[in-house]
Structures are given as C-alpha cells and as structure tokens.
Amino acid sequence: MMSYKIHFIILLFCIQLCYSQQTASVWYDTDNGLPQNSVKDITKDKYGFIWLSTENGLVRYDGYNFVTFTHLNLKNNRFTFFFGNAEKDSIYNLTAYSENTILLSKRNISVLQKQTSCIRKVLTESRAHSIFVKNRVLEEVENRKYFIYFDKNSYYHLANDGTIQYKHQNMAPIKGLDENYILDTFCFGQNIFITSKTLKKIIKISSGKVTYLDAPDVFFQKDAKIYWSQINNQSFIIHDHILYKVLYDNNAISVKKMATYDLNKNSLSSIYHDEINNKLYLGTLSDGLNVIKFNNFHVVNKSDKSYDNIFYSPLLFGTDKVITSSGDVYNENGLVKQYHFNTTSRYFLLYDNKKNIIVQKDKSLLRYFSNTDYSTKEEQDFGKTVSYAWNVKDYYVVVFHQPSLRSQLVFYKDASFKKSFLQFSISNIVTSVQEYGRNKWLVGTRDALYSIEAPSFTPKKISSKPLNVREIVKTEDGNFWIMTQGNGFFLYRNKELIKMPDDKDGYLLFSHTILEDKKGFFWISTNNGLFQVLKSNLLNYSRDRKSSVYYYRYSKEDGFSTNEFNGGCSPSAAVLQNGSFVLPSIKGLIFFDPKKIRSYYPKNFFMERVIFYDSKSSKKENTINLENNFYKALILVDVPYYANRVNLVIEAKLKGSNNEKWEKVSSDGKYYITNLDPGKYQLIVRVLASPKGKYIYKTLNIDVKYLFYQTLLFKFFTILILSLILLKLIKLRIRRQELKKRELEKIIEIRTQKLLKAVSKLEYTKEQLRKESVQQKKLLETISHDIITPIKYLSIAAKKLYETDEHDHYIQKKHFESFYKSSIEFYNFVKTLKEYAEIYNISEKKETYNIYEVIETKKTLFEGAAREQNTQIINNVKNPTYSKINQNVVAVIIHNLIDNAIKNTTNGIIELTTIEDDSIFFLEVRDTGKGMSQEQMKYYEKLQNNIENEKLILQKYSLGLHLILQLLMMINGKIDFKNNNPYGTIVSIKIKKQKYG
Questions:
Q1: Which end of the chain, N or C, is more open, meaning fewer C-beta atoms within 10 Å of its C-beta?
Q2: What angle do CA 477, 313, 474 make, to 5 degrees?
Q3: What angle do CA 512, 513, 518 make, to 5 degrees?
Q4: Tens-digit pLDDT profile for residues 615-648
Q5: CA angle centred on 266, ends 260 and 267, rounded to 5°
Q6: Residue 889: is it exposed, middle or buried by C-beta count within 10 angstroms (0-12/13-18/19+)?
Q7: From CA 493, how far away is CA 512, in angstroms rounded?
C-alpha cells in the first residue's frame, strides 16, 4: 500500500448553488495523491472511507490521505465500477476484462475467493450483456443489451430496441420509449426511471409494473444528460453547465441545483455527493478528482478593489441587513443600497433613541435622520476630534483622545450632546466602555481594564498586568467577557478577572468579540479564524480552572476569503433578526446562520496500519510484536474526517511507559514508537467526538521482546544465585580455617602430581638420551671399523699411482679408476653417516597437517628419478587426510622409503597408503621391484628387536632403513617387511600414538 499526504490548496470557484451556498474546490491528480488520473467510480463504505476506482488500483481516501492498494497479485490493476451493498460491508469491483473480482470489506481489499449468488449472476450475464450499475455521461449507447441486478428476485434485461425483460419475462411494449433510452435511464432503490422526452414524462418501472410521473422540465431538454450510480443510490442531471441532483420522495421526482460544471472542459466519469460532510466528488477520465465543499458562510464584497472590501462596524439595519459608517447597506447576497454618509471614520456608528444614525466627521458628529430615509443630517461640533461614541444603556459616551495618549470620557444623558453630567480622564487610549451596575462602568484601554463607580468616579485598575483591551462584551446571562489584543480573553465576574485557556495555536490571544447563539455556543472572531466553543465549557473552567475547553476553528477552508477578522470597532459584529451573524474582515463581510453551520467530529477511527523499520517486528490482530532492538515503529491512526483537520483532536497515551500522560498526535495520524524497554504496553488512542468532550477510545497491545537476561525468570534466578552465593560466603567465612587447611592439602596434592609427572617425563627423556647415547656410541664404533677399508683402498691406489711410470698411461688410468671408485664409495659412506647422525636433530612438530600433501611433495621430488627407472609413484592417500604425528619424522620416513623403493624398482609401480585412528598411525609402501632377500628381512627384524645391542652393518645393508629404524625407535613405532606378489616388497610402518601425564 502506498500512502500520500495531501496538503490542501483551496481554490474558491464562482459556483452558485442552491440556498446561495458558496464553495471551495480542490483538484487531486498524480501530483498530489492519485496513482492515475482516471477516476472511473466513487463510493463510500460503511466505515466512512471514500473509495476511488482508477486505471492503476483502488484508492482509499479519508479526507487527508490517499492510500493506494497494490499488494494483491492481480492480472491487471485496471479497475472498473463498484457494485454491491455498502451497508452490508460487501462492495465489489471488477478488473478489466473481468479477470479478477475484488471485495472491499473491513476497510481493506481482497480477491474474492468464493462467489456469492450476486457475483455468479453478474459474471454470467456479463458474457452477453453490459452490467448496468451506473450511467456515465455518454454521448451514445455503447452496447445494445444491458442487465440491471437488484437482488435474486428482482432483475431486468434492457435492449436498445425497446425490449425490456423482468426476471427473463418480456414486458409489454412501453409507450413513450425514446431511441437510445438507455442514456436517460436511472434508478432509485429497485425502481427504474426512464425519461421520455416524447411524452415529457418519467416512466417508472417497479416490480415489472409501469407508471408515469411528472418531472421538472430540465429532464426533457435536448442536451440534458443523466448520471446514475446504483451502489450510491444517487442520480444527477447536467444541463446548460449546471449540475442538479435528482431527488425521489413520496413517488415524486424533483431536482436540486448543486453547481455549475463544464462537461466540455472536464470528461466527467463519476459523481458522488457526500451529504453528511456536504461535499461533492467529481471523477474524470483524464483530469483526476475534483472535490467541491459547500459552505454556509457567505462572503460579501463591495467591489473588486481590495481596499473597498475592508470592513468595520456593521450596524443592524432592518431585519436582514447591515449598514456601515459610509452608508452602504448589505445583505448576504451583496450590496443593496448606498446612503453615502459623509464620514471620516470607519470605526464606529450608532443609533440614537429615534433610530437616527450617528457617524463621525472630523471634530463633529453627524446625525442622519431616519424619517427622511437618512437623506438629511445635522452636525454637532465638539471643537475636537471624536474618537469613539457609544450608546451604553441610558447614556451616550463620547471619547476624545488627547495628544499625550490620555483619553477624556464624557457622559451625556441624551443624544443631543448638549450637556454632560460626568467627565473624567484616563491615562491611555480608551477602546471600550460597558455598564455593569447603576453608576458603575467597566472601561477598557490599550494597557489596562478599569472600573469606575459613584460617588468618586475615580478609575481603578482591575488588571494587575498590562492588558490591551479590544472590547468588553456583556452576554445575556450578565457575564462580562474581556477581549484583548495579544492577551487572550477573560471572564470578569465577582470583581475577579479569570483568564480563559488559549487554543493550541495561540490564535485566541488576539480576540475581537463574542457572539452567542441559541444552542449555547460562543462565536469568537480573531486575527486568525473564527472559533466556536460551548459557553458551559468556559464557565466550568472558570469555576475549577481545570475543566477542558474544546475550541472548533473555522478558516478559509470553510469559505472565508481570509482568516483575519476585524475588531476594535463599534459595533464589532451584528446579529440579524433571523438569527444570522455578521462579522467584518479585511476581505469582506461574513454572513452566516449559526444554526446551519455544522461542526464536524469523527464517528470512528482505526489503528490497523503499522510501518515497521525492521524485518522481524510484526502485527497480529490487536497486538504489535516488536523486536528487542527495534529501531522504531509508525502507527497510522486512520480517521475518516473530511473537515478542516485543525479541528481533529487525536491524543495518545502509552500505558506502562515512563510517561503515561496524554500527548497530542499530529492531524496526519502518525504516532511513532521508539526506545521502549522490553515488556508489555498498552497504546490508548482517543479522538474527540463531541464539543462536550466525548472521546472515542481504542487500544493496541504492544509487546517488546525480552532478551534472555532481561526476563523475570532470569532475574529471579540471578537473585536466587546471588543469595546462595552470599549464604555460601557466610558459610565459607565460618569454616575459614578448615577450608584453608583443605586448600593447602589440595595445593600440596596438585604440586605432588605435577612433580610426579615431571619426574616421569624426565625418566622418559633420560631413557631416550641413553638410547641416543648408545646409538651414537655404536655409530662411532661402526665408523671406526668401516671407514678403515675405504681409506686403506684409497691409500693403496694412491701409492700404486705414485709408483707407476709416468709414461705408462694405461696403468695410470687403471689406478685412477680404482682411486675414483674408492673415493665415490668413501663419499657416499660419509654422506650416509652424516644423514644417520642427523636423525637426532629432527625437531618435534605436533601441529595438524595433511599427509596427502606431504606424500605429494615427496612424490614430486622423486618423480625425475622414478622416470629414469621407468617407474610410477602412486599416492593412494585420500585428500585431505589429517594427522598430528610428528610431521618432520613422518616426512623423513616417507622420503627414505620412496628412495629405497626407487633404487630397487625398474619398470614398476610404487604405491603409498595411510590409515589413522585414535591410537595407531599406519603407513604402507608397496613396490614391484626386485624385492628384499630373506637375509635382509631377518637382519632388519633382528636389528629392530634389539637395536641397542646389535651391531650396525651400514656398508652391506641400506642406510635409509637404518635411519627409519632409529626414527621409529624415537616415536615408538614398528616396521614390517613382506614379499609383494609376484614381485617387490611391502613395507608397513605402524606407530602408536603416545600420551604423557
């Protein structure tokens, strides 16, 4: 779903309506909310939401947000018309080509899974007929056959040739049916109405019976066009650019003028009149949605010049008009007469006791006589400028402003202004005077509120702080309300000045006047809007200083040309004899009947949409489940509300949190949840539903997941464990000496065990060193014995070479050959002895390694030598095969075994295999060479069993195998030899894994 926030741009259209209503109009398209500009149908569900059918999805509108539903996997998103029953919460819509049927129910949409009898009937008939549920403003009939379905017991088939069937039965030919009568057909309930321009009658068909009704002439005009919507049960007619609503009551047809509309400019495709909210919705095929709001405020202007339309001081004139200080007379329809008073001040005018009108001219007062229809006048010169004049009950009060910003108040007993009976001076500019008892007056100035009483008539300041008084208003209950500029408004009662609460935006700080209607509401004009409030709310607050006060604000959105009203004048408003009010503003006079002005409050609201900012949080039924580390969650409070959203009061309280106070939610209904500790909470949301303070409440459960260490169970066990530890510590303290003794014994035991292990290891090391020493001794003995022969041969060869005649080259060559062979033998012997001696320098490595890679390395090393022997080396070890047996030792063993096998194998194969488990490492080398003799096998076996005592015969037997035997002795291993059939030898190495300590 996609949600769009709409900022209203109000355009005032010059559209004249019935009852002289004025309108405010706004357009919506893809730039400000719609997914597509073809609004093909409009309806309203039982919950108060407006639904739009477009070529790119279904759209839900709540007066502020457009929510486009695109979450369904449909064959196409091109929706058509609505049908069904809104009151039964079953509204349907078909996508193009009837590929999908969509159900609108419970404020959401879904693909219809099980067809109802209505849907089955409609889909069946749609194969051969056009489903007739609305009559767009068409130029011609698009189909020859139509089907109207009311319910299973009432349905019709209409053909353009005049044939009409009721429940599949042909009706008798109907007199007066015009060609293309389908275009002039509409319905109310289960009644069909067809306009007959031939008969100038309306043909009514009810339960298959035909009657004829009279109707207004507009139905029978040539270019009149009918629009009908079955689901809305509404019909309209458009003629001469005027849109009428068709009414049907008591078997009579009538029309009501709604608005002017140019069909040539906008391709109208759908109409819905929301009577509750007094709005008209017009859908077009290409221009989007036009919403027209009907207003009961009437703005009256003098001319098209802005200066002429600034109004002050409307004085009641006759029964339904007002007159201004310039002599202009207005009613709610405009300027009706001009008397052209020669005034120099627009800020006051008044009647005397003979209904003569008094205005100011410089230093004089002009009196226009009613008995001459205000055509003659007299002038009363005061010799100084008159600032204000009031008729206060039995007195006439005139104010003269002095250059020092002081004011002189002069009281007269009659309107002749000949002789004053009371005068006094006040140290600021006087703005309002009101009598509150015999010889008692309240006087408002630009800096304070004063009281003046007999006999001293000395002004006494009432307000302790500076107070710029605009007007003192006395209501019918005798209370005095003090309106100020920048300080709000006050109630003055029992010599106490009580400040009234301000509105949330502070607009009431600049209050002009109060008017009281018959329903107990005050209407307060300000510099920024007109406010409505129950007087009882204000009085309750004045008594306890804590009762809630609920203001309702009217603004330009409700039909004004401006939000700025004028005050500081006399009179500041007028009440007509019919009960209507008149207020001056900087852009016209505002006429309205308070009985016809409706304040709108929500009937319901919903909390079903939640936006999560993580992938794991979710909402199930009435519970929001949040992850422990959730970032934030956005709860959308959906309120079907089609008036000025400034009057929508949404408040929320999160029960279970650190702050459980009610807080304001913005008018867009967005409530964010962040930084909540794990636990269970309740989000309580309320919406103001009445000016008396009645709220609608709804609750959402919020569950923030605990981490395991944040649960109560974990905390309980933690406390329990800590308690047990504390108890244990106490016991340990009591048994300190005993535990210390045990600890010392345990330390001694541990050290003894370590010492025993160390001794055991030292003994093992000692034994190894002893064996090495024995072997090294045997090696020296062998060297001493075996090295003599090659050295002796070298000596003899050298002597013979020395004694040979230098010319006897043959003998020399023979002796050189003998010397060369003895040298090679001696070199190989010494080299072998070196390798044999270095077996004790092999470092110990116990890291894990791959035997396969070790064998591959050796295989690569010997491949050249093997190739010379035409022998193949095969590594049968699985890759990978891991081992922890000393890698260096294993590498030397493999090296020597391969080397020995290559030397003894020609045109053959050498294969290597390993097996390892938890206790044994097994290595097998199998070749197909000439093989070992039984004598060799016995020698090595005997040497292996008694390597410490047997003499090494290095010259006769392979030194490599001697190395292997020495290495196996070091790592507790054994070697085994056996013949390989048919040729070769199998050498098996078996090493037991040792464990120390």
A1: C
A2: 15
A3: 150
A4: 899 999 999 999 998 989 999 999 999 999 999 9
A5: 120
A6: buried
A7: 19
